[in-house]
């Protein structure tokens, strides 16, 4: 669907508003008038939050590194003195951290001068994947040290480029240690993705699933548990595939699973699955590689089979910054790929030969959105 041309009259109101609000006297009036005061205050807070976001992230990082959330989950609310001793912090510093985390909704004051989990601390206490991402962000933020150089392409490849070797070296997983590090992060964060995907698209009617770029098999394992008669297969780069083999055998799925090593940019995918999944794979690649990948998936699918594409997408209602700001810059630092709007993914799927492409709602679109595409012809 092509976008309609932007009519010039739609610019008139923002241009008028900007000219008005650029005037110091108008801003002072806006701050003073009861009807507009709340907007002025909210804007100030929003600008401050943008400036201070890194500081908030570091408060979160300190809590995760110190294990604050897990402790409060297992031990219940505790006093500052108890926490200072448990976390090996000077009492003054501990009080400062608890106040900071409290102001951000991570912790919450309880009776008896104790501190418990706040509404935003609870997800971090219960989800090891979220904590793994917070720890991983330390590398991302180092790469963002000079965002202008990053945009101009004048900074040397940074930590994310080394963490994800297939970005920049297509088809390379960097060896067992490097592949192990990125696969472990993906496996730790897969449960929250898999829960969304399996809730949105139950797999019970399928017989054979191929998870392309399926990492160490965490999704295949969860899919097998959710659909007991499903045969699950994983295709990934060699050192990642070796981990998937071990994992699926360890999960007692040796008889119901198969693991294939190769590159979807060079090698043929195993044919015959009636459902192929691409979870958090497409956004890692530029358009030419995505075209190759989707065409390979179309060819591998059994006639009448379907592809399930799931990843965070640009332009997600209520989560625009997640796609365009967070993943836009994450993938820039990594060296390739982009978050795509759902319309662009639909177009790429149709170009690859898929006939019926539809969106399936997930409960947390910020985490992942899902497209289902049918192969109706024969291969
Ligand atoms: C019961 C009473 C009284 C009230 C109830 C009130 C109520 C309804 C509360 C709701 C409670 C609730 C269900 C809360 C749920 C919270 C959730 C689900 C929070 C989830 C947060 C998820 C976040 C912040 C996810 C962040 C994900 C990130 C940063 C992902 C990064 C991914 C990366 C880096 C992937 C890299 C892979 C690559 C290379 C891009 O391909
Ligand atoms: C971001 S991870 C996602 C892993 C998994 N799908 C998940 O959601 O947890 C991308 C995966 O694609 C794999 N990959 C990248 N390039 C590949 C290629 N050319 N051929 C096969 N797998 C590839 C990586 O090894 C990695 O396991």
UniProtKB/TrEMBL annotation:
<feature type="domain" description="O-methyltransferase dimerisation">
    <location>
        <begin position="49"/>
        <end position="113"/>
    </location>
</feature>
<dbReference type="Pfam" id="PF08100">
    <property type="entry name" value="Dimerisation"/>
</dbReference>
<dbReference type="GO" id="GO:0032259">
    <property type="term" value="P:methylation"/>
</dbReference>
<feature type="domain" description="O-methyltransferase C-terminal">
    <location>
        <begin position="178"/>
        <end position="355"/>
    </location>
</feature>
<keyword id="KW-0949">S-adenosyl-L-methionine</keyword>
<keyword id="KW-0489">Methyltransferase</keyword>
<keyword id="KW-0808">Transferase</keyword>
<dbReference type="InterPro" id="IPR016461">
    <property type="entry name" value="COMT-like"/>
</dbReference>
<dbReference type="InterPro" id="IPR036388">
    <property type="entry name" value="WH-like_DNA-bd_sf"/>
</dbReference>
<dbReference type="InterPro" id="IPR001077">
    <property type="entry name" value="COMT_C"/>
</dbReference>
<dbReference type="InterPro" id="IPR029063">
    <property type="entry name" value="SAM-dependent_MTases_sf"/>
</dbReference>
<feature type="active site" description="Proton acceptor">
    <location>
        <position position="283"/>
    </location>
</feature>
<dbReference type="GO" id="GO:0046983">
    <property type="term" value="F:protein dimerization activity"/>
</dbReference>
<protein>
    <submittedName>
        <fullName>Demethylspheroidene O-methyltransferase</fullName>
    </submittedName>
</protein>
<dbReference type="InterPro" id="IPR036390">
    <property type="entry name" value="WH_DNA-bd_sf"/>
</dbReference>
<dbReference type="GO" id="GO:0008171">
    <property type="term" value="F:O-methyltransferase activity"/>
</dbReference>
<dbReference type="Pfam" id="PF00891">
    <property type="entry name" value="Methyltransf_2"/>
</dbReference>
<dbReference type="InterPro" id="IPR012967">
    <property type="entry name" value="COMT_dimerisation"/>
</dbReference>
